[in-house]
Design goal:
- The structure is a single chain.
- The chain contains 13 helices and 5 strands.
- The protein is α/β, with parallel strands linked by helices.
- The protein has a 5-stranded mixed sheet with strand order 1-2-3-4-5, with helices on both faces.
- The protein is elongated.
């Protein structure tokens, strides 16, 4: 009975036979080639895991070539192999592989297969050239899949990291009952300012706070855009029933705001966050008293049997100290 297979199909069959019958030899040579290469990093993948991945690739490649009618990597027969390549390239992107390391892993299989093809097609140069071309074309497309999915995975990781950084860059901290603080570090753009405002307003609702301290110690430059974002945040907080205190205004930023004509007269400001926290405590009926003074008051109150009097005396003395300090 005549063999109706085309030369292309015969070459594909020969490649499948080599991948199947000499699989262990191919794996040993491929693993050794990877371990001996300069770009292999054993801290990213164990030898056992590398062998398991390589075995699956060789088996799936042989199966796909056998089932494919066209021998083209876009054929449906290669769908499982493409999915597996996407999976391991994503894992490698997460682990910190470079694009070159990702592509070199697949392309290095060609160096392993060249001697085996030379043995299989000895004396038939045309078949050898065709087999090498077909196999190299498949490896090139496999390497391209690895690189493309690696780039997509890295972009996803970068987007997630950016989102995490934005969330971390707008931490709303409860420092006392009904008092919140929002340290602002770096440059404010529209997106970050919106997230900052939403986080602050939500925290005001969740905690029932009435004072919010916005600290701009970490803001390097102040321009009209940043000032407008701050004003909008303060206005929104006021609508939610909370007053804002702006702290960390450096001399350079103060001069810049004056030069730009930015009006912050409606916002209470303090030079340092400590001053803002102290003011916030006073606004909710609390006072900061030196420990020695407080102990003396409590001691005197205990002698008189009046702790309530001592409590109010502490507030009055703290207020008196503040007045004296301002006058001085």
């Amino acid at each position: 009975m005549a063999d109706n297979t085309t030369p292309q199909q015969q070459i594909a069959r020969s490649i499948v036979d080599i991948l199947a019958t000499r699989r262990d030899e191919i794996l040993n040579l491929w693993i050794k080639e990877r371990l001996d290469s300069e770009d292999f990093r054993d801290e990213l993948i164990s030898k056992k895991e590398l062998r398991q991945q390589s075995r699956r690739i060789v088996d799936m490649l042989a199966e796909a070539i056998r089932d494919s009618k066209t021998g083209d990597f876009d054929d449906a027969a290669f769908s499982d192999l493409r999915a597996f390549l996407n999976e391991i390239s994503h894992q490698r992107a997460v682990k910190g592989y470079t694009p070159l390391e990702n592509a070199t892993y697949i392309l290095s299989l060609r160096n392993v297969m060249i001697p085996l093809f030379a043995e299989e097609f000895e004396g038939n140069a045309d078949a050898l050239v065709r087999a090498m071309n077909d196999f190299t074309r498949l490896l090139d497309k496999m390497g391209l899949v690895m690189v493309e999915n690696y780039i997509r995975s890295r972009e996803e990781i970068i987007r997630q990291q950016r989102a995490d950084m934005l969330e971390l860059s707008t931490p709303v901290i409860k420092v006392w009952d009904k008092i919140l603080t929002l340290p602002i570090i770096g440059t404010l753009d529209s997106r970050r300012a919106q997230m900052m405002m939403e986080a602050l307003l939500q925290k005001i609702v969740d905690t029932g706070s009435i004072i919010a301290i916005l600290d701009i110690t970490g803001v390097r430059t102040m321009d009209t855009l940043v000032a407008n974002h701050l004003i909008k945040t303060v206005t929104a907080a006021r609508l939610m029933g909370a007053r804002c205190i702006l702290t960390g205004v450096s001399p350079a930023i103060a001069q810049t705001m004056v030069q730009l004509g930015i009006d912050l007269t409606q916002i209470t400001t303090r030079a340092q966050m400590a001053d803002g926290i102290k003011l916030a405590l006073e606004m909710i009926g609390r006072a900061v008293v030196p420990s020695r003074l407080f102990q003396a008051i409590v001691s005197d109150g205990a002698k008189d049997g009046s702790h309530t009097t001592a409590h109010y005396s502490a507030q009055e003395m703290s207020t008196a100290e503040n007045k004296e300090r301002k006058q001085g």
